[in-house]
Design brief:
It is built from nine helices and 49 strands. With about 800 residues, the chain is mainly beta. The chain has six domains: about 280 residues, no CATH class; about 110 residues, Sandwich (Immunoglobulin-like), CATH 2.60.40.10; about 90 residues; about 90 residues, Immunoglobulin-like, CATH 2.60.40; about 90 residues, Immunoglobulin-like (Sandwich); about 100 residues, Immunoglobulin-like (Sandwich), CATH 2.60.40. This is Gliding motility-associated-like protein.
Length: about 800
């Protein structure tokens, strides 16, 4: 295939390749053997510069002996280029199930695999034709110029024959390159053997692109021993032969099998296989080994898991089989159970399990609370804590199985809430309800569950007539009990039922309040105190179970914030001011109606009228008839004078009225008097009138004589309108000789004819006669006065 010219070619091109390592694909244990058929598509050995012609079809015949029952049939096809992955097998379309590829020095190669057991079982011994394997579009001149153009196919048939000993058949495959100076060796190890007899031991190969003319270190070895047979020299293992048919014209394809009885020993537990090539490069596609090996093959299967609602107990039905074993499986095999890699329990098989048999078991496991509801349940057999097999077995790859487990915890996460709403203005006890909130409460964080609603407990328990419209459900009675059911989607028998009530509350309808009116008080500032509760009965309007609150703003009324704390003594802040009354159902405050009314403070009319002026009768005072003064006020038929007051506040508040208005003596001069006028008309405020009463100094009356004789009549020189009026006056009396004999003032008693001045006259009763007086009132309006007074004894 690759001639010296090719070597020259390679020296100028850098080697590159990718491949799939030869690895175990499947294994059969029992009374099995295998055979293989196949054919090339090349019409001759590929040579450098050889013709690129290649067939699209070729045939081979399968001839099994009687008693040989087909167990499996696998077809491999391969060739140069990127590949054709759909072919015909005896006119039946076969599409590749696995694909392999290589790139060597920039040239593509492919291989494909398909399981055609059904086709071969149905057709049995016959001629098998592979058709429409068309590589012409994939093989390019570079393949031909370098002698690497090839194509072909092979069917590997595993069959059962009861006359055979217990064998272990391993099928390895991949697409691995050996040769081309850099990758001149591949090797792999066969493990888990227990060779009890070397007779019939063999190893087979399917390889592509081998060349009979190249034999440079082209060897097959097992346990270091070179393999050869009549068709395959020791130094030219890949030479285009078919050991099953004896053909030597399987161009660029090798389908060979070697007996290896002399190269293994009884008791061997592994074997090493090595393939080498130094010049010719070969693409190894599959390797099949047949050894008479006796070992059990314990495999574990989880058959069923039974999970109880709202329990961490899980019942596991599992089986341990020895289907692929070549020896009985002894009792006492370890079986361990894990939840998310946490060891739950370990048991041991009680019985021997024969080859090809199994045993069923059941175990109840308690899942710790640390494990989530969704977890991985894993069962292992014949494995210690380090994951190593405890007893020797054929295939440790089937010692572990697992399933995704889900504990079913269904419950009402949070109790449902009664849904309470307000009726509309009709108060007909029929409304629409939305159950969404209770759905969320019931579910919480639970998944894989569903919530439904029912009209009765019986319906809920039997899943009868669930309520379909849960966002606009219209009640049929008030109150109405609704049953909520949360149920597992995986286990319908796992559920929990609770209930809640739909409750419709009457919507209060606020009555019509009256606007409140008060008269201004104290200062005339438009502010006053109101009793808002005067409107309670009008707003409540005989409705029951009602709360009423008052608010200064509509927003507060709707939000229920900042209510008036003492509605019986509310002081307005504006005039006029709107007050909002909120009427709520005492059983459900969301049921609310709001109305409003206006507070008004009426100004007090204050009017001045004429007052009265009188002479001072002492200390700037006099007596006044207040009723006489107020006669100038014109009253209507519905008005009357309520009283007289010394200040406006008393008059406005109707406090401290003057007790004797008909004979009122002023205490200051002038003095303002306030008259309150009331009316029996509604919403009419009192009127306030005011006037001043005052006194003035009048000219005093000076008598011309007096008679101090003790008869009680004119016993003193008394000047009327002088004393306690002209409080700073000064009176002097002189005799006819001009001597001062008396001096008086507001603090000295009137002159009774006795001298109080002079060195020799003090206390002397003066004789009858005429005396001269001088009166100084010390008032710019009056005097001084002087004249004669006659003293008569």
């Amino acid at each position: 295939m690759k001639k010296p010219l090719l070597f020259f070619f390679i020296t100028f091109f850098f080697y590159s390749a990718n491949s799939q390592n030869i690895e175990l694909y499947t294994q059969f244990n029992g009374q099995y053997d295998y055979t293989a058929i196949g054919n090339t598509l090349n019409i001759e050995e590929n040579e450098v510069n050889s013709d690129c012609e290649i067939l699209t079809s070729s045939s081979a015949t399968l001839s099994l002996n009687p008693g040989q029952e087909i167990e499996a049939a696998y077809i491999y096809w391969a060739g140069s280029g990127t590949g054709d992955f759909e072919i015909l097998v005896n006119n039946q379309i076969v599409t590749s199930q696995r694909e392999f590829s290589l790139i060597v020095n920039g040239l593509d190669f492919f291989a494909a695999f398909a399981n055609i057991t059904t086709i071969v079982e149905s057709q049995g011994n016959t001629n098998y034709t592979i058709d429409e394997l068309d590589l012409e579009d994939f093989i390019n001149p570079s393949h031909c110029n370098n002698g690497v153009n090839f194509g072909g196919w092979s069917i590997i048939i595993v069959y059962k024959d009861l006359s055979l000993p217990l064998n272990q058949i391993n099928l390895y495959d991949g697409f691995e390159l050996v040769g081309n100076f850099q990758n001149n060796s591949i090797d792999f190890q066969l493990d888990n053997l227990n060779v009890i007899d070397t007779e019939g031991a063999k190893i087979g190969f399917l390889a592509w692109e081998g060349d009979a003319s190249l034999a440079d270190n082209e060897e097959l070895r097992i346990n270091g021993n070179v393999l050869s047979n009549s068709l395959n020299p020791a130094d030219n293992a890949f030479n285009g032969t078919n050991s099953f048919t004896g053909a030597t014209d399987l161009y660029n394809m090798d389908l060979d099998v070697y007996g290896v009885e002399s190269f293994i020993n009884i008791g061997d537990t592994f074997a090493t296989i090595e393939l080498t090539s130094s010049a010719d490069y070969v693409m190894v596609n599959s390797v099949v080994t047949v050894f008479n090996s006796t070992l059990p093959d314990p495999a574990v299967n989880i058959d069923e898991t039974t999970i109880t609602c709202n329990s961490r107990e899980i019942l596991v039905d599992y089986s341990i089989d020895n289907f692929n074993g070549t020896d009985v499986l002894p009792s006492g095999i370890s079986v361990t159970f894990f939840a998310n890699n946490l060891l739950l329990d370990e048991v041991f098989t009680p019985n021997i399990i024969p080859v090809g048999e199994f045993d069923n078991f059941q175990i109840s496991l308690t899942i710790p609370s640390s494990i989530p509801e969704n977890f991985n349940l894993e069962v292992r057999t014949n494995l210690n804590n380090q994951g190593n097999t405890i007893i020797s077995e054929l295939n440790p790859n089937n010692n572990i199985t697992s399933v995704s487990a889900h504990l079913i915890y269904i419950g009402i996460a949070s109790p449902p809430l009664n849904i309470e709403i307000c009726d509309d203005a009709s108060n007909d006890n029929i409304e629409s309800f939305d159950f969404t909130t209770n759905t969320a409460l019931a579910l919480g964080n639970q998944t894989n569950s569903i919530v439904n609603y029912f009209l009765s407990l019986n319906d809920a328990e039997n899943d009868n007539d669930p309520i379909l419209n849960t966002t606009e459900y219209q009640n049929t009675q008030n109150p109405q009990e609704i049953f909520i059911k949360i149920q597992s989607l995986t286990d319908p028998d796992c559920y929990e039922i609770d209930s809640f009530f739909l409750i419709i509350h009457d919507l209060p309808i606020a009555g019509n309040p009256e606007d409140l009116f008060v008269c201004d008080s104290n200062e005339i500032d438009g502010l006053a105190t109101f009793d808002l509760t005067q409107n309670n009965s009008l707003i409540i309007n005989n409705q029951q179970n009602i709360n009423i609150n008052y608010y200064s703003t509509q927003t507060d009324a709707y939000n229920g914030t900042n209510p008036v704390m003492n509605p019986g003594f509310f002081e307005n802040t504006n005039n006029p001011q709107t007050i909002y009354a909120s009427l709520t159902n005492s059983n459900f405050e969301d049921c609310m109606d709001i109305t409003s009314f206006i507070l008004s403070v009426e100004d007090i009319e204050v009017t001045e009228i004429d007052g009265d002026l009188k002479c001072d009768i002492g200390f700037d005072s006099n007596d006044f008839d207040l009723s006489e003064i107020s006669q100038q006020i014109i009253l209507s038929s519905d008005e009357w004078i309520s009283g007289y007051f010394l200040n406006f506040l008393d008059a406005n508040n109707f406090e401290n009225a003057i007790n004797s208005p008909l004979s009122f003596s002023n205490i200051i001069n002038p003095q303002t008097i306030y008259v309150r006028i009331d009316s029996n008309l509604p919403n009419k405020c009192q009127q306030i009138y005011f006037f001043n009463v005052s006194t003035e100094h009048c000219e005093p009356f000076i008598p011309e004589g007096f008679s101090p004789n003790g008869d009680g009549i004119n016993d003193t020189f008394f000047i009327k309108g002088l004393y306690d009026i002209f409080e700073n006056f000064e009176l002097q009396i002189f005799n006819r000789y001009g001597s001062l004999i008396y001096k008086g003032n507001n603090n000295v008693d009137p002159w009774d004819g006795t001298s109080n001045k002079g060195l020799n006259n003090v206390g002397k009763k003066l004789p009858t006669g005429t005396y001269f007086y001088l009166l100084n009132l010390k008032d710019p309006k009056f005097g001084p006065y002087k004249g004669w007074v006659y003293l008569n004894r």
